[in-house]
Write a structure and sequence with these properties.
Organism: Angustibacter aerolatus
Protein name: Phospholipid/glycerol acyltransferase domain-containing protein
Order of helices and strands: HHHEHEHH
Shape: globular
Strand content: under 5%
Strand order of the largest sheet: 1-2
Number of domains: 2
Pfam family, one: Acyltransferase
Keywords: Acyltransferase, Transferase
Structural class: mainly alpha
Distance between the termini: 50 Å
Number of strands: 2
Length: about 200
């Protein structure tokens, strides 16, 4: 899709080819962009969540690695509502009635005690856990719900790391979206009654 590619390049998107050897090039480009003063947005899970309830899952270490290498702050951001416009792994957007999308950013993740440690797997895993915990806390506030006890790990459920998840996960995610739509419709009806 040449037009989409041109738009994304013009916006400064750094392409990541997860299955190829270009991931290291994308990481180097991200470091260079941060050092040049750019703001980088990263989905720390590396893909759409596989969690049946649409909660954040176990993250990948790339965002934490970037923050620890560059010294840049790592600001957690959560969103709730895009799933009402386009169901996860869906192909048809639901534009009507208009949907509300909520986005909230929290304070930078507290990684100060990790910045002087060796950049090894335990340090990266801990930094990633903190960031994902911060994102999940923000999402709890947006959803008005309590997170699952443990973040979803696709490997523990025999799911692939990338691509479309299994039918059981997609079915559970659809049920989560439908339940959220019902709660939103009920809230709208209650607000409308209060105005009359």
């Amino acid at each position: 899709m040449p037009v989409v590619g041109a738009v994304l390049r013009g916006a400064g998107q750094i392409p990541v080819h997860r299955e190829g050897g270009d991931a290291a090039q994308a990481f180097s480009s991200a470091v260079a962009a941060i050092e040049a003063g750019a703001c980088i947005g990263i989905y720390p899970e590396g893909t759409l969540t596989r969690d049946p309830g649409l909660w954040p899952m176990v993250g990948k270490t790339g965002a934490a690695r970037l923050a620890l290498i560059t010294g840049a702050p790592l600001v957690p951001v959560a969103q709730w509502g895009p799933e009402q416009v386009l169901m996860p792994y869906g192909k048809r957007p639901h534009l009507l009635p208009r949907r509300t999308v909520h986005v909230v950013a929290g304070p930078p993740a507290d990684l100060d005690d990790l910045r002087d440690r060796p950049l090894d797997a335990p340090t990266l895993v801990e930094a990633t856990r903190r960031v994902m915990d911060d994102v999940t806390t923000l999402l709890e506030g947006l959803r008005g719900e309590t997170r699952p006890e443990h973040p979803y790990d696709p490997r523990e459920h025999g799911e692939r790391a990338h691509g479309t998840p299994g039918e059981s996960v997609r079915r559970a995610q659809r049920a989560t979206v439908v339940a959220a739509r019902r709660r939103l419709a009920q809230a709208r009806r209650l607000r409308a009654r209060g105005r009359s």
